[in-house]
């Protein structure tokens, strides 16, 4: 249940941000990105298929491994962000980026995916450190 709430919250924030920018309610610069992440140019059907495959693999893995149940927030952010960008790509054939980060432009979905992945990496590093510390002490 918590997973679905986090996904829904991420989708709502992302959709609201993109709508406010697209309708020019927020007067901030934005780009319509037809490529993949980090400016990789493979838009259209290839991007939709790749995103759908990655989502399916992650969701299957999530369902099969109890370790992921301990990381509901991280996976909720990743799934919510990926679904948000996937839906926009299906509807508009591109993704609206409006948050500047250096020379790149991002959106709320991108940030959610990045935050979720960062949480997983940190958790993995802490777990590895704790396990190695236990082996040394024994």
From TrEMBL:
Cite the EC number.
Answer: 3.4.23.36
User: Which residues carry out catalysis?
Assistant: 97, 110
Instruction: Name the reaction it catalyses.
Output: Release of signal peptides from bacterial membrane prolipoproteins. Hydrolyzes -Xaa-Yaa-Zaa-|-(S,diacylglyceryl)Cys-, in which Xaa is hydrophobic (preferably Leu), and Yaa (Ala or Ser) and Zaa (Gly or Ala) have small, neutral side chains
Q: What pathway does the annotation place this protein in? A: Protein modification; lipoprotein biosynthesis (signal peptide cleavage)
A family per Pfam: Peptidase_A8
Question: Biological process GO terms, please?
Answer: proteolysis
Which segments cross the bilayer?
Answer: 35-60, 72-92, 104-126
Keywords of this entry: Aspartyl protease, Cell membrane, Hydrolase, Membrane, Protease, Transmembrane, Transmembrane helix
Look up and give the membrane topology term: Multi-pass membrane protein
Recorded GO cellular component terms are: plasma membrane
Q: Which InterPro entries match?
A: Peptidase_A8
- Alphabetized GO MF terms: aspartic-type endopeptidase activity
Main localization is membrane
What role is this protein assigned?
Answer: This protein specifically catalyzes the removal of signal peptides from prolipoproteins.
Q: Which PANTHER family match?
A: LIPOPROTEIN SIGNAL PEPTIDASE
What protein am I looking at? Lipoprotein signal peptidase
* Gene source species: Candidatus Doudnabacteria bacterium RIFCSPHIGHO2_02_FULL_46_11
Chain's gene name: lspA
């Amino acid at each position: 249940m918590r997973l679905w709430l986090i996904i829904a919250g991420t989708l709502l924030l992302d959709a609201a941000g993109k709508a406010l920018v697209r309708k020019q309610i927020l007067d901030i610069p934005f780009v319509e990105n037809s490529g993949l992440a980090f400016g990789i140019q493979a838009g259209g059907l290839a991007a939709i298929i790749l995103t759908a495959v990655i989502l399916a693999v992650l969701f299957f893995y999530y369902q099969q491994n109890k370790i992921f149940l301990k990381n509901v927030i991280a996976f909720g952010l990743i799934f919510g962000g990926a679904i948000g960008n996937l839906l926009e790509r299906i509807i508009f054939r591109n993704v609206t980026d409006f948050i500047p980060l250096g020379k790149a432009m991002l959106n709320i979905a991108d940030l959610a995916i990045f935050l979720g992945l960062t949480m997983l990496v940190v958790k993995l590093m802490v777990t590895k450190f704790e396990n190695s510390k236990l082996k040394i002490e024994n």
